[in-house]
Specification:
alpha/beta; Rossmann fold; 9 strands
Length: 266
């Protein structure tokens, strides 16, 4: 029997991104493998028609997964006893793909999202679930922290927030952890003005916050320094070879979403 899931607005995007990863995994030569996503999608009673039609969203999700999996894996290889804080986790399954490479992994999201997650993913140490808003400073009370290396992942979130929210999230990280590396996905002003993702429009979630680059983000967050930024074009190159050509065009690189690496040092 299939399980009905009722979500609207930003939380609904987690079902669509899950579907994109499942569909890619089922292809003949998948660029990512997420068997857990396939399993969950097969159990859902949900209308995937918008996500099915939305090639832009699907490609973007897979490109982002490729880039972030590589970046998280690189970090964990260099910091084998790290604590990972996965902000606005939705139905993300990276903690399983990175199994055995971290000390503790915390998946954090709104109570209604975690409620859905718990129906399909029963997590216990070293993977934990925290059902709180990331704007609520008390979520950090549930994180065991003994000054280990900390990696914070903010995937598919910042574009739905406002500047005050972004400052608040980073302020909580700054006050809680002696040092931390943050991987934050950001959207360019051009995309918000010109791009339309059918499945996102259908969910009533709206893109609201943009930032041009890491330099601009660093000005907002004086306690953090920008170490590098990786365009999702890098993931698109693995998905669609034509991006080796068009990805070299500066405009394409600049308008694509980016993963910006921000560091807070003791």
């Amino acid at each position: 029997m299939k399980e009905k899931v009722n979500v609207t607005g930003v939380p609904e995007t987690m079902i669509q991104t899950l579907y994109a990863r499942a569909m890619e995994t089922c292809k003949k030569n998948p660029k990512i493998k997420d068997e857990i996503a396939v399993e969950i999608v097969s159990k859902l009673d949900y209308d995937f028609s918008n996500a099915k039609k939305d090639k832009t969203m699907s490609n973007g999700v897979i490109a982002r997964t490729i880039v972030l999996d590589e970046m998280v894996e690189q970090y964990l290889s260099a910091h084998p006893n790290a604590v990972v804080v996965n902000i606005a986790c939705g139905m993300d399954t990276r903690c399983y793909r990175m199994k055995g490479k971290y000390l503790r992994w915390y998946n954090i999201d709104l109570p209604e999202t975690i409620q859905i997650r718990k129906r399909f993913l029963t997590e216990n140490g070293p993977v934990y679930q925290i059902a709180k808003s990331v704007m609520d400073t008390s979520y950090t009370n549930e994180i065991e922290y003994y000054k280990e290396d900390v990696l914070v992942v903010m995937e598919g979130l910042s574009m739905y927030l406002n500047e005050a929210d972004v400052r608040q999230m980073f302020s909580i990280i700054e006050k809680t952890f002696q040092s931390a590396t943050v991987l934050i996905e950001t959207m360019s002003p051009f995309v918000v003005q010109h791009a339309k993702e059918k499945s996102i429009e259908g969910s009533n979630a709206k893109f609201t916050w943009v930032v041009k680059n890491g330099k601009e983000l660093q000005q907002l967050l004086p306690a953090f320094s920008c170490k590098k930024e990786v365009s999702l074009v890098e993931g698109m190159k693995k998905l669609l070879p034509v991006y080796h050509v068009i990805g070299a065009i500066p405009t394409v690189k600049n308008i694509s979403n980016k993963i910006i690496v921000m560091e807070r040092h003791a």
